[in-house]
Amino acid sequence: MNAREISEQNEKLILCERACFCTNTAGRKISEPESELRTCYQRDR
Questions:
Q1: How far apart are CA 29 and CA 1, in angstroms?
Q2: What's the domain count of the chain?
Q3: 24 located within any domain
Q4: What is the secondary structure of 1-45 as a DSSP string?
Q5: Is residue 6 included in any domain, yes or no?
Q6: Is residue 27 part of a domain?
Q7: Are 40 and 29 in contact (CB under 8 A)?
Q8: What is the domain extent for residue 2?
Q9: What predicted TM-score, i.e. pTM, was given to this entire model?
């Protein structure tokens, strides 16, 4: 399990059930390979 997957699991434990989880996004218009470190919401920072 890499750092991104750990962050995604922690989101489900910490955030409200109505939160926008990074695992439930519609994605990007142009797909990119997933980072091992950053979630999809952290990528543009």
A1: 27
A2: 1
A3: no
A4: --HHHHHHHHHHHHS-TTS--GGG----SS--PPPSS--TTTTT-
A5: yes
A6: no
A7: no
A8: 1-14+33-44
A9: 0.76
Structural domain contains residue 2: yes
Residues 7-43: pLDDT tens digits? 999 999 999 999 999 999 998 899 889 999 999 999 8
The residue that leads in pLDDT, 45 or 8, is 8
Residue 17, CA distances (Å) to 12, 13, 34, 36, 45 in order: 8, 9, 24, 25, 24
Q: How far apart are the C-alpha atoms of 16 and 2, rounded to whole Å? A: 23
Apex 23 CA angle, 22 and 27, nearest 5? 75
